[in-house]
Design brief:
Two copies of one chain form a homodimer. Chain A has 424 residues and is an alpha/beta fold. In chain A, 43% of the residues lie in helices and 21% in strands. The interface between A and B is large, with 71 and 71 residues.
Chain lengths: 424, 424
């Protein structure tokens, strides 16, 4: 990183930290007023935002981005309206800041409490989705945090306008505009630099693929919330209701195949494999699913007109994010659990069984953020879990695991009152 | 790191992970039996342990370690008895594993719960204190975690015997001995290697000085709990009771000057500085305290026979761990808060004031793990806070902040039961 870049990031960090001290002590009412003003300003500057986004879309097409990618970064009146409407949803959530827990009088005479407070400064690195710019800024402000945003370079023009509108809303209320800052250069070394700003940044949330997650885990000196990568498994036990299983598996695989909680690998108990595998494959095939089958399941599937490939090792270590499904026959629940322990990213796993002991065993032995009995893996989601908002889905174990609501953007401090009290 | 070292650490990690799955599902009764057996085995092998420790002590003396360091690594019958007695204390704590929170029926029909579970594998890097070997192993096992220990090289002989005795206790109960493993080579590159074992290790706790903390923050791809470094401040407001202040400040500074919650910098409001600074200095001087004084406080202190040095910038960024105290005059609370924000390590800060508004302001503006009104900083401690045990004192904001009890060695997983339920 050049000296200029270091200086740029240091200033960004210092300004964010300074702003965070002001944000930390806003009342819920002030934060509501702020979010309302942001929604108003976004509405006011709708045309400007859509024009900036049109430039990103045109450049993306020119640069040969896939239709799917262009679609993800595209805003229109409807989508922008949805983004603005979502702010109302965040406004309606309870403010998680300033709550006291574990309040008590200690034996040493102090009155102690553990108060929820904002983290301070949150750094978020994300892909080319302009909705995330607004979404994350709003969640950070709602919880009294300052935020440093680093979005995908393909949406830099949109993000610049969106963040400027939000900053203008802050200024209009005499709040520090540096509560929301965008890294406005596409230079990749700025990501590495951001990951070392531990003097100013309290948490890094990478919202992106495996490469970004790995980069953050390896390079960051700031605590990182890894997540959003799901190699998800569903195990069909020999005592599952095989008729009802079909719909659940189809739901897990095809309802929205491009997301992290979609099913990647189906594990089937050997005792029911011969009957069940052709049945489920037939149903999934009709929905457009392709298969990577282990030796045993390939045997049940070949020659039936399905799109089936013999599985290689990578078949089971791939998050498909598409209509491909790995299938593997296992001897028993131990082998199913062993496979999951080896290949899972710790996101979501499910078992289908009518046997209560088998269900308990699966829940106890599988070490993932969300473990389901007789349900689709697709439920791992802040909104489905009733958290109101979703900051990210954590697949690591510290601080927050699984869908992260507003609480995940808070920490606590211990406050103690004495009467000129000394320790004995 | 050599290929042999990589292989050594990988096997250590794999064995720890395998053991952790068994540990995770022990009942509280089984864990109590385990800890009791460990205490018994330590008593049984007392002589062996003391002999091994005597070798470490002899080598330490030969290698010219300071008396203080030799004292810290030395075990005798009394100290070993204390370590064993502490196990009873841990046994008596409630088991934090298996507790359900936020249990409810979701709108989508699932029954959801958030269950506390062990982290899995914890890596602990610590200095030459053999008591930590037992202490951390016991806390990890109590919470169903496997642990990889890396102690100071000066106690390697003691640690080998201690960990072998604990492993023997595990084996005697048919539990996996690899729940407790010691890195049994002093090679420093093994520390760096441990910090990259993210495939197997879920959390790193460095219990040691600033250099170790920094190394872990920069090199670890595993979440790290930084802590135990305290540049602690106490601010004497103009409305403090200046008589009663003296005892609290003396307590914060001299009761145990070598620990992280001892006072490092005294900030004094300018309106009371001329009277108070000579008074407090006189009392502290009688207790052996030396001073690093800012220009203004130096002016009040010089020529009175105290041991006083003009402060330089490092005076305020040093954790003294000794009978030295920085003193600075500030214009008002804002300057006090500003100084703390600049120099604090986020551990413990205190204000002395009889003004409720000033007290609130200090609590709201200071962003440290523990903030005190009219009390000594020395209270930041798991036992003083009533946590029963202290894993470490975290100065970072994610997962755990301040004194960490058993809960800090747990995470949670989301469990959901459906009736072959699909997402709409």
């Amino acid at each position: 990183m050049s000296a200029t870049e270091t200086e740029y990031l240091t200033q960004l960090g210092q300004r964010a930290k300074a702003a965070s001290f002001i944000l930390a002590n806003l009342t819920a009412k002030q934060k509501t007023a702020l979010l309302t003003t942001i929604a108003d300003h976004l509405t006011l500057h709708k045309n400007e935002i859509l024009q900036a986004n049109a430039q990103d879309v045109a450049a993306a097409k020119q640069n040969g981005l896939t239709d799917a990618m262009v679609d993800r970064l595209m805003l229109d009146e409807g989508r922008l309206g949805g983004i603005i409407a979502d702010i109302d949803n965040v406004i309606s959530l309870a403010d998680p800041i300033g709550k006291d827990a574990e309040s008590r009088i200690l034996d040493n005479g102090l009155r102690l409490t553990r108060r929820s407070v904002p983290l301070g400064v949150v750094g978020v690195i994300y892909e080319a989705r302009p909705n995330v710019t607004v979404d994350i800024a709003v969640l950070a402000l709602k919880t009294g945090n300052a935020v440093i945003l680093r979005g995908g370079k393909e949406t830099l023009t949109s993000n610049k306008v969106l963040s400027e509108v939000i900053r203008e809303a802050l200024t209009s209320l005499d709040l520090p505009k540096d509560a929301v800052q965008l890294i406005d250069s596409p230079d990749r070394s700025l990501v590495s630099g951001l990951l070392r700003l531990d003097k100013y940044v309290d948490m890094i949330i990478p919202r992106g693929g495996q490469h970004l997650q790995r980069l953050c885990a390896e390079q960051s000196s700031i605590p990182v919330i890894l997540g959003g990568i799901g190699i998800c498994h569903l195990y069909v036990d020999k005592q599952a209701d095989l008729m009802r299983a079909i719909e659940v598996i189809a739901n897990a695989k095809v309802q929205r195949p491009t997301v992290c909680n979609a099913l990647d690998t189906l594990l089937v108990h050997q005792d029911v494999a011969a009957d069940f595998i052709p049945n489920i494959a037939s149903h999934l095939h009709s929905l457009g699913v392709r298969f990577h089958a282990c030796v045993n399941s390939f045997h049940y599937l070949e020659g039936l007109g399905f799109d089936v490939t013999p599985a290689h090792d990578e078949s089971f270590s791939t998050e498909w994010l598409s209509l491909t499904l790995g299938i593997k026959v296992v001897n028993n629940i131990d082998e199913a659990v062993g496979h999951i322990r080896q290949y899972s990213t710790g996101h979501s796993e499910a078992i289908l069984t009518d046997n209560i002991n088998t269900a308990s065993e699966f829940m106890n032995q599988v070490d993932s953020a969300a473990v389901y009995v007789n349900a689709s893996t697709r439920f791992t989601d802040g909104s489905q879990f009733g958290l109101g908002a979703e900051v990210a889905v954590s697949t690591q174990k510290l601080h927050a695991r699984g869908p992260m609501g507003l609480d995940a953007l808070t920490t606590y401090k211990w406050l103690a009152w004495g009467d000129y009290t000394s320790r004995q």
